[in-house]
Amino acid sequence: MNDNEKPETQEKKKITGPDLNPDAKQAKEGELEIPSTLPLLPVRDIVVFNYMILPLFVGREKSVQAIDSALNNNRYLLICTQKDEQVENPGPEDIYQTGTVALIMRMLKMPDGRLKVLVQGISRARIKKFIQTDSMDTVEVEVVKDREFTETTSESEAMLRAAREQSEKILGLRGIDSAEIMAVLNTVDDPGRLADLVASNLRMKPAEAQKILECEDPLQRLKMVNEQLIKEVEVASMQAKIQNMAKEGMDKAQREYFLREQLKAIRKELGDVSESGDDLEQLRQSLKKAGLPSKVMKEAEKQLQRLENMHPDSAESTVARTYLEWLVDIPWKKKTKDRLDIKQAEKILNQDHYDLEKVKERILEYLSVRKLNPKMKGPILCFVGPPGVGKTSLGQSIARSLNRKFVRMSLGGMRDEAEIRGHRRTYIGSMPGRIIQGMKEAGAINPVFMLDEIDKVGSDFRGDPSSALLEVLDPEQNHSFTDHYLNVPYDLSKAMFVCTANILDTIPSALLDRMEVIRIPGYTEQEKIKIADKYLLPRQIAENGLTRKNIQLGETVIREIIRNYTREAGLRNLEREIGGVCRKIARQVAEGKKGPFKITKKGLAKMLGIPKYQNEDRDKELPPGVAVGLAWTPYGGEILHVEVSLMPGKGKLILTGQMGDVMKESAQAALSYARSRALKLGLDEDLLDRRDIHIHVPAGATPKDGPSAGVTMVSALVSALSDTPLANDTGMTGEITLRGRILPVGGIKEKILAAVGAGIKTVIIPGSNKRDFDEIPAELRRNIKIKTVENIDEVWPVLGIEIKKTAC
């Protein structure tokens, strides 16, 4: 500091002690006379009051000369405050005219040439005249004496008390011991002296302090001091409040820190924490070992750095830590080694599943290509077929034959897109989608990932999961699948996705286009018998605690169960009924009865109850107006009866049986064809105008739709109009046009399976469906007669309806 006449500290301390020199003591007692001419010492940022003792640093040349002059004479000088502390050489206009006469008590010369002086305020004084000299400023002064205070009034006493009380409050708020200070203040009864004493220790701006110094009335001066005390109390109160709040926060943080350190030490002693003890360092090492791609590693390091700067117990810290743990747990490079032994894989597939040659062939083709080209992308297979034919278990067999991990994810009823893509990291509890969760479960990047029931995915206000699956099931895109939670690309191209569905109609075309569809039709009776003997019966015997010695269940009894207790394309109900038989035997064994127990057709009814299905449809003859149709459902083929009744009326068409729009149109087309061919078919044309026609399809509670009942409806209508009964062992399917053409339909194998199960001997199918014959097993074709027709006129001879030779 070059030139600083500021006090040594911001707080002005009253200095007392036994070593005051005699002149100072005499000055305090008012025994010394103050000269009329004194050296001037301008000071910055401080106002000196009477009775105030403080140190000053003096560095300016004129100020040093003023100190020397005072020391060489009577030690008195006039201290005045500068109006602007930035002025280096103040003139008369830069200095307040009222100041304080001070007595120099001590002086010390500093090594840098500055002086440190200890001064004591003696009396107020006003500058009358400036006496300019070259070396220093000398002024002629007029001492300002306080008005004598002789009588104590209630007003003065109130102000004295207020000053003392406010001073005590401030001392208390600042945490200063007030006992000694208040003892001094309580002994001062003069308002002017108390005002000077308090003002000298208040933190005021120089301008405010100068106003108090210039006030000559003691009571008015004390009043001004009281106003400043009130302001200081408010400021000190707020400052104390802020300090307390900060201290409380600091104390809480320190307490938590010590508790955490203690808990860490306890865990270390118990062996719950490794010697390194640094969880974040362990997390960092785990991230390095996880084999993250460079882009993912960059994001992980960013999140780890954020985690280091967070409080361990904060909510954001939990979210960041969970995210990093997910990055560690998900496989990025780890994979299982494929078993590329084609013969071994074929053997495993044959052990697990009977027949399904097309599916097995496709899997073996994939393995062969994989063996020749290890970098190939995983295929997207979609198994479509009725329930119970083994679609889901096929996925497990594929994984077993490939020696891969198997993950199954059910999509049935899913409506939230976040189930696929995950939730964003915006709240506690957010998680990745089911795809990433499945990859974590697998622990390898190349599992067999089964998406079950993909045809039952829905959509609502939460998004469309099927649209989110587009990226997952596209081999050209899924190498950089982005989950909302991870928010970094993840490679799904090494995984083999297998989907299952009962029907294709509800799958969006864009999604269906990404999959290779493999149809799995229902099983024939002979196939069911072989599967039951080879797979279902051994499994139920084991599950019910039996052995092969306990039970004898022959092929005849299994056939009886298939025909009279199950009507399905799959095998679930068949296994359920076989399980029922095994449970009955298990009870007898548990009761102590000895086997073996041979099951017969007669004893089957006692175990399984009355047969659920009977060939009641196979009456000796059908009444006119009834035809047997073949229908397809997502759960297999079914027998469908179409009934037509004629009533007096005006040619109105009545449709019942909960038909869909397409089926209603087929009924209308059938009626139009019958009207147009009435003469040729030998029908009375006027009869159609005098009768209302009611077409009904039984099982009215079941919705029905589709065009394949067209041939059946025409046949039933012609049978009713001609009063000719149709053969009871003939079923039919096909779409009819107004010209009489029969168009192809789907589900031929399922329909023929249903016909054979119902005892139908002959089926009529469209000629264009000959291409589906390859799907029908030879044993099935031996049990039924199949007639292919191109036009409706070819149906009448098969049904026994005579056609006139004349044209209409």
Q: Tally the helices: what do you get? A: 27
**Integer tally of domains:** 6
CATH superfamily of the largest domain: P-loop containing nucleotide triphosphate hydrolases
CA distance, first residue to last residue: 129 Å
Q: What percentage of residues falls in helices of 4 or more residues?
A: 40-55%
CATH class of the largest domain: Alpha Beta
Q: What structural class results from the helix and strand content? A: alpha/beta
CATH topology of the largest domain: Rossmann fold
The second-level CATH architecture of the largest domain is 3-Layer(aba) Sandwich
Low-confidence stretches: 1-30, 273-277
Write structural notes for this entry:
- The protein has about 800 residues and is an alpha/beta fold.
- It has six domains: about 20-145, LON domain-like (Archaeosine Trna-guanine Transglycosylase, Chain: A, domain 4), CATH 2.30.130; about 155-240, Methane Monooxygenase Hydroxylase, Chain G, domain 1, CATH 1.20.58; about 280-330; about 340-520, P-loop containing nucleotide triphosphate hydrolases (Rossmann fold); about 525-610, Helicase, Ruva Protein, domain 3; about 625-800, Ribosomal Protein S5, domain 2 (2-Layer Sandwich), CATH 3.30.230.
- The protein contains 27 helices and 24 strands.
- The protein has a seven-stranded mixed beta sheet with strand order 18-19-17-16-20-23-24. The protein has a five-stranded mixed barrel with strand order 1-3-4-5-6. Strands 8-9-12-7-13 form a five-stranded parallel beta sheet, with helices on both faces.
- Helix 8 runs antiparallel to helix 9.
